[in-house]
Amino acid sequence: MLAVLGLFAVAGCGGTQPGGESAGVLRVLAWGTEGSRLDDMAARFTRENPGVDVRITSVTSSAAHDKLLVGIAGGEVPDVAVVGASYMAALAHTHALETVPADFDQGQFLPAAVDAVRVNGTAYGVPWFLDTRVLVYRTDIAEKAGINAAPSTWAELKEAARAMQSKGGAKYGISLPTDSWHIFLPFLYQAGADITDGQRVNLNTPEVAAASAYYKSFVDEGLTPGVVREGFEIAPAFVRGTHPMFVSGAWQMRLIREVGGPSMDGRWAVAPLPRGRAEASTFGGGIWTVPKGSKHRKTAWEFVKWMSQPAQQAELYTAVGALPANRAAWALPALADDPHARVFRTQLRTAKRPPALPEWPAIAAAVEVRLDALVRTHGDGREMAEQLDAAANAVGAR
Amino acid sequence: MTTRARAPWWVFAALAFGMLLSIGPFVWMLLGAFKTNADLIRVTPTLLPERWTLDNFSRLFSEGQVGRYVLNSTAITVVVTLANLLFCSMAGYALGKLRFLGDRVLTGVVLATLMVPGSVTLIPLFVLMSTLGLVNSYAAVTVPFFAGAFGVFLMRQSMQSVPDDIVNAARIDGAGEWTIFSRIVMPQLKPALAALAVFEFLSTWNNFLWPLVVLNDQERFTLPVAVAMFAIGEYTTDYGLLMAGSVVLIAPVIVLFVALQRYFVPAIALPAHFRTLRNRN
């Protein structure tokens, strides 16, 4: 790109449309399946609030993050942006986000959700949808293997995986990806690990060692595939019965129903993640934020308030399986009558957010890479913990 | 007519193998576009679809409104390519055929900008667009690319293949610079122009990050951004839609290659810098 020549070209080639737009245009940057459903809702908001023209830009989450960062750096931001829970701390530390108005009622949301929008005690956003990991398993294969209840402890989970593989006829016992911190992190929390002191990540602890050893033992015993090929999708493998258990979130329910069709009805279930020393899972989701420099702050917060209402939240659950942040939405029929929703609600009580460190996304990426290598070595849990800690803190080193 | 010695069989074998390797992914993509999603992610993949389906394409054109994005991409790419053909040639002529104070320094500056990776200029360019009020406009995805450094350098090098004597002779005969440029020099540079057209078309057509960052209105998106938006979900990828989108995406490029290869193959075969300096974005 030749910026200098570009400048000449601009000077010589005026007459393009001006960047200013009418006061009523509200630009919203969103992502994911949730974002792709926003157009209909935005149209309804416009009907209820005439004069506000909501324009949704919905791309993939990493693309949205790039777009928001460049926008912040370039001084041209959307009026409202959905931010992923794991990016929240990083963005808040750049002072690029407005703080939530004091009169915004955060009490209407689940406590874990409210916790996720706070960085150093200040709320920089409003929770939109939530996401937590649960255990998904094939009840028919479990029964064949002589298991009649969902595994509720680490020992039972291992036992169930062994039985499903040896007696249930499944190729593997469980699917635990070796390169995903999303799936690994709950095990750390279940081991009782407190992986951050708020300043840096500490993975060199006996708890992390215990969780690492436990996680690796599934690979060592051949209960989970040691290598997951690119593009692998769990839902078809689960429906086929080769991978009878896995750890995943609410969006996966719809995918299993889509892939499996009616013949899968009654042959699978979800349960809270098995307990180690503690019951725990991870917590994520989408957070509404208003970037500094938003041209319509008042309208922006009104839009966020409207999107937070129980009716809109339940609608999103029905459409794409996004768990509502608003407590009242859980009482609506769409969720109250759904057995899966009850399990997710239970799991949300013990779900913990990822560490609120600005470097967390980079640390998580480094830990994933190292974890993938470590599970195939002969090291014990303590060595794994040391190495993971080294990888994590190489990122944080300043 | 010259008779060429026939190459030994193993040269053909090696070339055929190389061709198979480079064509393989395209064949996979093309056939994949006609498979169902379940078929695509089968654990033992098959080359031919189990059941041929046009479902991916119909979804692409109904849900995706792909026509709109094809139109956007085509308009943007054609404008940028034509502008490059004109401006790069003019700049190349000035740098290659005219002597003036600082001409070498200026060539050096053009070369230097070629060394700066696109990711470094992304944010400054965005700030520039923002200051000019051009964010979310078609101007932002066209105007900054009207005269790429690669193109300027390419045309400058090509100019040197035109003998100075011809230029000087024309000058003695009373031709002005514009006449020399348009009547004498340019007609001799068709291979270079064809090559430049293909490269500009390709890089503009394929550009992903810049249109993604600078455009906000979905109806202004270019085809690569739109295909990624529709096919790649948060947790899953719709491979069928992705394959169908990619087929639509590369079809015009292949057509252009076939149409212009007569012109640009000689140009590529000659100066090696065509390929080494391609990395514009």
CATH hierarchy: architecture of the largest domain in chain A? 3-Layer(aba) Sandwich
CATH superfamily of chain B: MetI-like
What distance lies between the first and last C-alpha atoms of chain A, to the nearest angstrom?
Answer: 32 Å
The CATH class label of the largest domain in chain A is Alpha Beta
Biggest sheet statistics of chain B: none
Question: How does this model look, in words?
Answer:
The complex is a heterodimer of chains A (398) and B (281). Chain A has 398 residues and is an alpha/beta fold. Chain A folds into two domains: 24-131 and 283-352, D-Maltodextrin-Binding Protein, domain 2 (3-Layer(aba) Sandwich), CATH 3.40.190.10; 134-282 and 356-396, Periplasmic binding protein-like II (D-Maltodextrin-Binding Protein, domain 2, 3-Layer(aba) Sandwich), CATH 3.40.190.10. Chain A has 18 helices and twelve strands. In chain A, the strands form three sheets. In chain A, strands 1, 2, 3, 6, 10, 11 and 12 form a seven-stranded mixed β-sheet that branches. In chain A, strands 8-7-9 form a three-stranded antiparallel β-sheet. A two-stranded antiparallel ribbon of chain A has the order 4-5. The longest helix of chain A is centred in the C-terminal third of the chain and has 16 residues, at 381-396. In chain A, 51% of the residues are buried. Chain B is mainly alpha-helical. Chain B has one domain (64-276): MetI-like fold. Helix content of chain B is 69%, strand content 0%. Chain B has helices spanning 9-32, 37-40, 55-62, 66-97, 103-114, 118-131, 138-142, 149-159, 164-172, 177-185, 190-206, 209-214, 223-231, 239-269, 273-276. The longest helix of chain B has 32 residues, at 66-97. The model of chain B is unreliable at 272-281 (pLDDT under 50).
